Amino acid sequence: MIISVILAICAATSNAGSNVLQRKANQREPEERSFSPKLIWDLLHQKIWLLGVLFIAGSFLFQAGALSTGELAEVQPLIVLELPLTLVFAKFVLGSRLGRYEWVTIALLTAGLGGLVAFLRPQGGSSNTSVLAWLIGGGAAGASILVLILFGRRAKAELRGGLLGAAAGIDFGLTAAFMMGMTGRLSHGFSAVFTSWQVYAMAAGGALGMFLVQNALQAGSLVAAQPGISLLDPFTSIAWGVIAFHERTAQGVFIPLAGIAAASMVLGAVLLCRSPVLQQAQDEYTRG
């Protein structure tokens, strides 16, 4: 458990670094490049964006390691730490100071996150799940992503960024489920991983998630896009872990307590995204 927690925190840190770097790269892209291959082509010629991609690659490796040693419903909520870490990285980029507002919201989010994991206490489960679960869960996630994309393409600026960020969050949660299924093949040897359909679904899901993130960041501010990316990923993963991978959680009074912790986490995330530091980061990138 300690190893999986450390690796999950490393994944969140890598994600936070990528968020700031990719936002800076995407800020200068014109609106007409949205959902165009030219957007990715332009970004490929920016060193800062490529550095952000390296951070994403590191995050995937850390996340895979965490899922191979821990439960899906336990590991993915820790990825939410990327949100306060993004704020801290933005602080260092701008040379600004974190005020009382930022520290209070960081404490609220962190307390909610710790409470959610502690009250749920996910354990057991299996890396294998039924074909029916993959079809139903994958179909529901895919339909949700498609609807968000369709509405997002018609929306303007900040709303588009928020909707596409939400689509990316669900996609990353689904990709984590594919990753969890892939780790089950490791017991048959490393070569067996490449005979599993989950590894190719994971690669496709990761590529789609990256594409959605680029368009979310290009369409709206980091403040608009980040809540959906950070929150829907763990909540989607918790659902997959409990329903599809049969991970057991605490029962009785711990369920409403976990609900209160989740609400605290969401409130902290929403308030944190309104931080003047992140708003200042947005203004700085706009002027740059």
Give an overview in words.
The protein has 288 residues and is mostly helical. Helices cover 77% and strands 1% of the residues. It has 12 helices and 2 strands, in the order H-H-H-H-H-H-E-H-H-H-H-E-H-H. It has helices at residues 2-26, 37-43, 47-69, 72-75, 82-94, 100-120, 131-154, 157-183, 197-219, 222-244, 254-273, 276-287, and strands spanning 123-124, 247-248. It has a two-stranded antiparallel ribbon. The chain is globular and about 45 Å long. The termini are far apart. Residues 284-288 have low confidence and may be disordered.
Topology:
Elements (H helix, E strand, L loop, with lengths): L1 H25 L10 H7 L3 H23 L2 H4 L6 H13 L5 H21 L2 E2 L6 H24 L2 H27 L13 H23 L2 H23 L2 E2 L5 H20 L2 H12 L1
Helix pairs in contact: 1-3, 1-5, 3-8, 5-12, 6-11, 7-8, 7-10, 8-9, 8-10, 10-11
* Multimeric state: single chain
**What is the H-and-E element order?**
HHHHHHEHHHHEHH
**Tally of helical runs:** 12
Helical content stands at over 70%
Which strand order does the major sheet show?
1-2
User: Roughly how many Å apart are the termini?
Assistant: 43 Å
Major sheet size, sense and barrel closure: 2 strands, antiparallel
Strand content: under 5%
Number-wise, the strands total 2
